Amino acid sequence: MSAELWNSAARVLEINWQDDHMVPSRRLYPHQWSWDAAFIAVGLAYVNPARAWRDLRSLFEAQWPDGRVPHIVFDPATAEADYFPGPAFWSVPPYANRPSHGSTGIVQPPLHAVAAWEVYRRASAHGAACVQQAYGELEWLYPRLVAQQDYLTTRRDLGEGGLAALVHPWESGLDNSPAWDAALAGVPADLSLLTTFRRRDLDVADAAHRPTDRDYARYVGLVLSYRAEQYSDTALLRRHAFAVECPSFNAILGAAELALAQIAAVLGRAAEADAHRERAQRITGAIVKRLWNPETRTFHVRDLHTGTLSPARCVSGLLPLMLPDLPAAQVDGVLAEARSPRFGLPDETGLPVPSYDRTAPDFDTRRYWRGPVWINVNWLLRRGLLTHGRLDEAKDLRAAMVRLVHRNGHFEYFHPKNGEGLGAPTFSWTAALALDLLADRSVPAYAKAG
Questions:
Q1: Which of these ranges, 69-78, 100-109, 153-162, has the smallest mean pLDDT?
Q2: Is the dihedral of CA 250, 297, 445, 396 positive or negative?
Q3: Is 123 domain-assigned?
Q4: pLDDT given for residue 106 in this prediction
Q5: Can 80 be counted among the known catalytic residues?
Q6: Where in the sequence is the domain holding 226, given as residue range(s)?
Q7: Consecutive H or E run containing 221
């Protein structure tokens, strides 16, 4: 099984390489996506480390002067008509040395420092020349990764509580998660926008698997309002109808600081390494203070307009487990939530955890982030299990992920009851993370003893 899966995953990454970057899939996602690039680099480093670095560099070459890393970098060779919302819709002004309409104006989870550190850790297996290249890539990336963190922890701290806020569901990477339902309820759903701006995802994907038209109209409207302000973050909370703090996004923000501490140490910047570790601790404390619900004993999304926590119990609430300084009470609570019938770790189906509470009345087995299984968030959850010394459960989750992909293919996501592949086939991050799971470098460098 291992050789067959390894070879098929490597083929997917070869198929989806486009000049200087990786696309998530050829038909549905023909550009470069931000957090996809991070997941992809982790696995691509095993088979082509030069491309892993090039993919990250290509993304950060599109970084804005304020430090934000856009959630899509558009390929100028792809026609506007081939993808919506495309560059003309976003209408991003030219910046730095980027051409007009080169990217979107929103962000995605800042997993890139974690990815850069993992790619660097792989370098020793490829010889001295690869190690030398990796060091040079870290030198180039480090200040840009720091600028990304600075943007998110300052301009995006809309709640002034030490966490980054999201101003669009797409920024989470968990686009139509039930975690946003309460916050989105106050956002107008102008369906006439879908006449002016026609969805193109439904040309190549099943409508029953994708966000609804009502939600999509809200997504379009939120972009238009942000675009009208030229993507300015000044007084953003007052200006925008959607502003939330997400536990998974901020857990990744904290994990990025820990990875930056490792990178800074390699680069001989001891004082900066200490500062990164301190920031990770502050982010962890803020997640516990602002996003923990002592009644449910798990983490939830906070709506910054109402100050309330979402009642939805989503996989995003499990991912603060990635943080080694998470207090014992929260570790125990998250583990209990993961093991409960809502997520089933381990599950009698033998599948990884779903994206949403299996017992909820609106659990949907096929609709994107409202129930299906995703390899990337399970990979992050496994990282959390390893961080807190839950090695047996991490081993079981790894086996479930490997088995799922081997049996059903490198799909974007999977049916949470029968494992059927859903969404885009030959999906890059599924293939890349399969390589990492097969290689099984189990313990993150900053793991906490169990």
A1: 100-109
A2: negative
A3: yes
A4: 97
A5: no
A6: 21-339
A7: helix 213-228
Q: Which residue type, as a one-letter code, is found at position 285?
A: G
Pull the structure tokens for residue 309.
């926590």
Long-range contacts of 419-422 (CB under 8 A, 24+ apart): 419/349, 419/351, 419/373, 422/209, 422/366, 422/372
User: Among all chains, which residue has been given the structure tokens 């029953």?
Assistant: 208
Q: Is 83 exposed, middle or buried (0-12, 13-18, 19+ CB in 10 A)?
A: buried
Look up tokens 């686009």; give the residue. Answer: 175
Question: Is residue 137, in this structure, part of any structural domain at all?
Answer: yes
Contact at 8 Å (CB) between 42 and 429? no
Q: What is the DSSP letter of 201?
A: G
Q: How is the chain split among helix, strand and coil, in percent rounded to 5?
A: 50, 5, 40
Backbone angles phi, psi at 20, to 5 degrees: -125, 15
What pLDDT shows up at residue 445? 42
What is the pLDDT averaged over residues 321-340? Answer: 98
92 secondary structure, DSSP code: P
Say which of 36, 175, 233, 393 is annotated catalytic. Answer: 175
- Round to whole Å and give the CA distance between 437 and 2: 10
Q: How much is the mean pLDDT over the chain?
A: 92
pTM for this entry? 0.95
Please write the tens of the pLDDT for every residue from 16-70: 999 999 999 998 899 999 999 999 999 999 999 999 999 999 999 999 999 999 9
Residue 199 lies in a domain: yes
Q: How far apart are the first and last CA of the chain?
A: 31
Determine whether 175 is an active site residue. Answer: yes
pLDDT band at 79 (very low <50, low <70, confident <90, very high): confident
> Exactly one of 233, 347, 396, 412 is catalytic; which is it?
412
Q: How many separate domains does the chain show?
A: 1
Report the distance separating Cα 413 and Cα 424, nearest Å: 8
Query: What CATH number should be reported for the domain holding residue 35?
Result: 1.50.10.10
Is the residue at 49 inside a domain?
yes
